[in-house]
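Async update (no meeting this week)

Hi team, since we skipped the sync, here's where things stand on the single-chain job. The sequence we agreed to prioritize is pasted below, unchanged from the tracker. I ran it this morning and attached the output directly underneath so nobody has to dig for it. Comments welcome in thread, and please keep replies under the output.
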Amino acid sequence: MIAFIGFSLRRGIGSFWRHKLMSLAATMTMVLMLILLSGLIILLSGLDATLNYVQQEVQVVAYLKDATPGSEITRLETQLKAMPQVKEVAFVSKEQAKTDFLARHPEDADVMRTLPSNPLPASLQINLRDPNDYVDVATFLRADNSVDRVLNIQQTVDQMVSVIGILRTGGLVVLLVVGLIVLFIIMNTIRLAVVSRADEIEIMRLVGASDAFIRWPFVIEGALVGLLGAVLTLGLLLAVQSPINDFLKVYFTVFPITGDLIVRDIALIVLGTGVGIGVLGSYLSVRSCLSR
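Output:
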C-alpha cells in the first residue's frame, strides 16, 4: 500500500512538471475562481450583515396628533409594549423631535426660528422583534385616534432585500460559470497527460494493472493543481488582509463583520474547493479515457 501511494505521488508530481504550460494555465484559472469565491464570501457576508442590521433596526414610527393628552400617549405605549410583536417603544416629544431635526439639518436652524411654533409632531418609535410584523403593528396604530399617521418604510426594506437577493444570485452564477471553466481546463490538462502516456497505460493494462493503479497518479496531479491554486489564493488574501480590514472598519462600522473573521472562515472553503475541483476534474477525465 505504501509503495502504491509513493508510486502515485511520484508519477502525479512528475506529470504535473512535465506539462508545465497546461498545469500553469489550470492553476492560474483555479486561482481566479478561488479569488472570485473569496470575494463573493466577503460580499455576501457584508450584505447579510447589512440586511440583518437593517431588519433589526426596522421601526414603526407613529406620529401623534398635537392635541393628544399625555394620558392617551401613556395608554398607547402600554398597549404597544403588551404586544408580542413589539420589542421596544420610545416616546419622542415635540421638543426632542426639533432637537433631533436641527442636529441632522443645522443649515435649517434659521428657518425653524422664524416659525411661530414647533411644526414637528411628537411620535412613538416602535422596534419590532421581526420586521415581518410591520403590517400588524402599523394596522393597530392607524386604528387609534391618537395617531395622525404612520411612517411606512417597509417598501424600502423590501427593496433592499430584493437587491441583495439579486446580487447574491448573480455572484453565484458568475462563480458557477468560472468553476465549470476551471473544471474543463483541468479535465483537458489531465486528458493531455493521459494521451501522452497512452502506450504506457496500454502496457500496464496488458500486464494486469487495475484502473485504480492507473488512475491515482492523475488524480494526485489534479489535486496538486487545486492545492497549489488554493495556496496561492490564500497567500494573496493574507497580503490584502490589512486593506480589507481597513475597508470594513470604515464602511461596516456598525456591522458584526471583520476581515480577520472572513479570512479565517474562508481558508478551509478555499482549500476544500480547490482540491475538490482538481480531484473531480482529474477523476472524470481519466474515467472517460479508461472506459474506452
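Quick observations from my side:
Strands lie at 59-64, 86-92, 123-128, 147-151.
The two ends are 27 Å apart (CA to CA).
Reply here if anything looks off.
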